[in-house]
Specification:
By secondary structure, the chain is an alpha+beta fold. The chain has four helices and three strands.
């Protein structure tokens, strides 16, 4: 018998994603779409004086994998710099491609069932890409 695509842990993570909310100050905003699966995320970020993530608000239209990944970004992104998020994105891409076995982000091992399903990788990577784009927009503004 094959393992279920969506485990209880993935569904719990997906359900834990907060509703979009107003930030005290919006330093950057981005909206990205995954052409592979059609997932879409609009993300606003508030940065501290050191340009680290202070608060995040997201509107997520994605499968449970994308929602779970977004919840992990929301939960574990606070305090991280642009370089840390960029490195996590590269490491996550490599982890999904089975190039290494060490999960690159807290809690991301819950998304293990997606590793052999390349069609789900875009939804998992999208929250990280959108966060980086919003941080880039904050640098421009």
């Amino acid at each position: 018998m094959t393992e279920p695509l969506y485990t209880t842990e993935i569904l719990r993570l997906a359900a834990s994603l907060r509703e979009p909310h107003e930030l005290e100050r919006e330093d950057g905003r981005a909206e990205l779409r995954s052409p592979m699966c059609g997932s879409r995320i609009t993300l606003a970020v508030q940065l501290d004086d050191e340009r680290r993530i202070e608060r995040v608000s997201m509107e997520v239209h994605a499968c449970a994998f994308g929602q779970a990944s977004a919840a992990l970004v929301e939960r574990h992104g606070i305090g991280r710099s642009h370089d840390e998020v960029a490195e996590a994105l590269v490491d996550l891409s490599r982890w999904l491609a089975d190039e290494h076995d060490t999960p690159p982000w807290p809690g991301i091992s819950a998304l293990e069932p997606a590793r052999p399903r390349r069609g789900r990788h875009g939804a998992i990577l999208l929250p990280f890409r959108t966060l980086l784009a919003a941080m880039d927009a904050a640098s421009i503004g």
